[in-house]
Structure to design on (268 residues):
């Protein structure tokens, strides 16, 4: 309450308050964060009141270190023996020494001597590749046909590939007394992507003793290949007046497919 003391204290208090307001701007330094803290002056100062002042305390942040390419020196076990390359050396598939009977002879272990190997490959050891690429000494073996069970010659329910009702003379035949038969020929175009076996025969309601088809079995070519021709004959006689009917079915047993042709012979 002393006026003299108050006049001395106010300027000092204003200076301390200004320092406190400016202190946060100086609290941050590179690599460390400094936060203001309160400090009470000692009570031994007779001329200063007990006013809180600011002190700075350092809080050090942890530093992080990033390591790049830490696995650059790693190699798999099968590459460790190769200092300058990561490639694996692969042995030759075709040994240089093809002496018959040697360990590197390609015919070793097959039970073939040099003569048998030459006969099997169409030449000797020196020109084996040329012989394999040529057709002069090549042995062609018959390919076994796919086996199939009994075939039932049954007309297709709705698709007829050739019908006498159309008036086509290939299917509507006339008996010739001069040749004592009626004959025609039909052509079937291949329609499969592979070679297909076929079997040809007559339906159960056809008198197979009077009707004949040639061939009765074989193989169709692939699509776009040569067509197959079938010869059809009726072997009746002039005394068998009237109309005679026959239904031919060509079955592809391995493809679940068939062709159906209906014929009529008129004997007048």
């Amino acid at each position: 309450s002393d006026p003299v003391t108050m006049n001395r204290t106010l300027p000092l208090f204003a200076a301390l308050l200004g320092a406190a307001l400016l202190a946060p701007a100086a609290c941050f330094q590179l690599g460390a964060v400094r936060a203001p803290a309160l400090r009470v002056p000692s009570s031994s100062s007779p001329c200063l009141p007990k006013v809180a002042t600011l002190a700075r305390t350092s809080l050090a942040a942890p530093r992080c270190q990033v390591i790049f390419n830490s696995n650059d020196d790693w190699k798999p076990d099968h590459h460790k023996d190769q200092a300058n390359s990561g490639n694996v050396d692969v042995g030759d598939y075709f040994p240089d020494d093809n002496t018959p009977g040697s360990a590197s002879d390609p015919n070793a272990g097959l039970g073939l001597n040099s003569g048998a190997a030459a006969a099997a490959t169409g030449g000797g050891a020196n020109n084996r590749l040329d012989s394999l690429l040529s057709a002069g000494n090549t042995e062609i073996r018959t390919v076994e046909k796919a086996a199939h069970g009994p075939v039932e010659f049954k007309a297709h329910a709705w698709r007829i590939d050739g019908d006498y009702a159309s008036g086509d003379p290939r299917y509507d035949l006339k008996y010739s007394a001069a040749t004592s038969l009626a004959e025609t020929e039909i052509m079937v175009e291949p329609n499969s992507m592979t070679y297909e076996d076929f079997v040809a025969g007559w339906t159960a309601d056809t008198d197979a003793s009077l009707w004949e088809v040639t061939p009765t079995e074989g193989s169709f070519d692939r699509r776009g290949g040569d067509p197959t021709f079938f010869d059809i004959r009726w072997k009746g006689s002039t005394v068998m007046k009237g109309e005679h009917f026959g239904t031919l079915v060509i079955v592809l047993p391995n493809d679940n497919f068939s062709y159906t042709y209906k014929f009529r012979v008129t004997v007048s």
In short: The longest helix spans residues 3-22. The CA atoms of residues 23 and 136 lie 104 Å apart. The helical segments are 3-22, 114-121, 128-133. Confidence is low (pLDDT under 50) at residues 27-33.
